[in-house]
Amino acid sequence: MNEMTKVDAGHSVEIRHLDLQFGAVEVLKDLNLDIHEGEFLVLLGSSGCGKSTLLNCIAGLLEVTAGQIIIKGKNVTWAEPSERGIGMVFQSYALYPQMTVKGNLSFGLKNARVPKAEIEKRVARAAEILQIEPLLDRKPGALSGGQRQRVAIGRALVRDVDVFLFDEPLSNLDAKLRAELRVELKRLHNQLENTMIYVTHDQVEAMTLADRIAIMRGGKIMQLGSPDEIYNRPQNRYVADFIGSPSMNFIDGRLEGGVFTSGELRLPMEGYEYAAPQVSDGPATIGIRPEHVVTGELAASAPVQTEVLVELVEPMGSDTLVYTELAGERFRIRMDGQAVVHAGDRLPIGLVPAKASMFDKSSEVRL
């Protein structure tokens, strides 16, 4: 099965029933994923969730236990990495220190015996797109971290492939540089319109870059959707908790007759969009994002009003985070950066059930 078999093309990349085991340990479990042509898909999750492993399987750097990997309509499950039509950018720059930037960009093309004129053309185009033309005669030691990562991206770019794979390419950079290169990557995708699969544990990168996000946990995809869907309609408590900084507030209670109660807190769930037509009464958990809590004069116009005691205030410039307690649970509120609030204050707040997320307490699946 070394030859690549032609399969009816529909998506740029298709993963079918993929399993990967290291001895008795299951790393990926019956994983299915379709990636659209020209899509920027982000694999997001905490360390050890299987996101980099999946990327390495797509690249051909790991041999799968079962399942199929199809790229551009070809079954490449057992194909060599060089036969898959992919370009990969790693977390480490992995540049040749003795070569110039131009040498690093052209090295793989020379090995592939691409004609010299074509090499010059591709290197010039990549340098122009990545704005590294003045750096072509420098060696990696004379470059900053951001410049080196641009060269690493350029080395994948000159291969002129349909699918680019990025394995946490910005994690070695400082916060300011990460933000700058994030914008550059978005521009690069808009310009090239190639399929890009990007691994990160940084939810800000995922939310800003992705057309769709696949949130992974324990070798499985917990939810696949647009950043808006992931943020506003998380399918389970894990996803709800993982996305957002600070993370979502959770309160355990009970749903009965369309009303959520927990202690003295009573939330009629009017306007809430249930995930299923019929939802049974029973133990439930409600999730409320800190930024969806209404404060100040607007609190009085919210569907549900209450008052909390401010325990701690964290000024963050553009935002102010307030720590308090609601229905016996720790509760965070995001306020405007200009808000005047102090520990010990009684703060009137408003809750909007339509913006909340509600989960079955035992299965943790969205209600």
Which features does this protein show?
367 residues, alpha+beta, Rossmann fold, OB fold (Dihydrolipoamide Acetyltransferase, E2P), 2 domains, six-stranded mixed β-sheet, five-stranded antiparallel β-sheet, 8 helices, disordered N terminus
Layout of helices and strands:
Blueprint: E1 5-6, E2 13-22, E3 25-35, E4 40-44, H1 51-59, E5 66-71, E6 74-75, E7 86-89, H2 101-111, H3 116-129, H4 145-157, E8 163-167, H5 175-192, E9 195-200, H6 203-209, E10 212-217, E11 220-225, H7 227-232, H8 237-242, E12 249-256, E13 259-262, E14 265-268, E15 282-288, E16 294-295, E17 304-309, E18 312-315, E19 319-326, E20 329-336, E21 346-351, E22 357-360
Parallel strand pairs: 4-9, 4-10, 7-8, 8-9
Antiparallel strand pairs: 1-6, 2-3, 2-5, 5-6, 10-11, 12-13, 12-15, 13-14, 15-22, 16-21, 17-21, 18-19, 19-20
Keywords: ATP-binding, Nucleotide-binding, Transport
Domain ABC transporter: 13-243
GO molecular function: ABC-type transporter activity; ATP binding; ATP hydrolysis activity
Tell me about this structure.
This protein has 367 residues and is α+β, with helices and mostly antiparallel strands. Helix content is 23%, strand content 34%. The chain contains eight helices and 22 strands. A hairpin with a 2-residue loop joins strand 19 and strand 20. Helix 2 (101-111) runs parallel beside helix 4 (145-157) and helix 3 (116-129) packs across helix 4. The radius of gyration is 24 Å and the shape is globular. Keywords: ATP-binding, Nucleotide-binding, Transport.
